[in-house]
Amino acid sequence: xxSESREPLLNTNLKAVIVVILTVVFISLGLFRNLFFESxxxxxxxxxxxxxxxxxxxxxxxxxxEFYAEWCEVCKEMAPxxxxxxxxxxxxxxxxxxxxxxxKWDNYIRKFEVNGIxxxxxxxxxxxxxxxxxxxxxxxxxxxxxxxxxxxxxSNEEIINNEFSAIKQNKNNDVNPRSHG
Length: 181
Description:
The chain is built from 6 helices and 7 strands; from the N terminus they run αααβαβαβββαββ. By secondary structure, it is of the alpha/beta class. α4 links the parallel β1 (63-68) and β2. The protein is elongated, with a radius of gyration of 24 Å.
């Protein structure tokens, strides 16, 4: 008889513990949602906030060109830093964001030989390539390149960090005998 009376008590305690755990998880997600989801949101908004590359290369302003993908973990990690730079410099510099998964940008991907992301190319007002950053970069290093644009930039510098994502080949538009129905 004693075991029968303990079962409902254990079930009640177990239910209470589960409810408490779920409550803590939901409250944590609510409080820290920006921490968990801000980078993904920023990456998705980059395409919408981007200056058209055709305009950027013709308006005599320096250009910050970033190749990224929404699935790229390094891109997500850098997104808040890039967003901060954009807010600070957007009046003086074109910010162009091109998603490597969008075939519309294939000509730029080939032109600038993008094989790892994020890749940031910085151009002076005349469209001359000044710096190329591949992979995870310190905000200070990119900021230094942007500040260098205010002087008389002359050289092309390539800075590669081993923390980058290889571009996934988009096979959606591969043509084969079975792809036509």
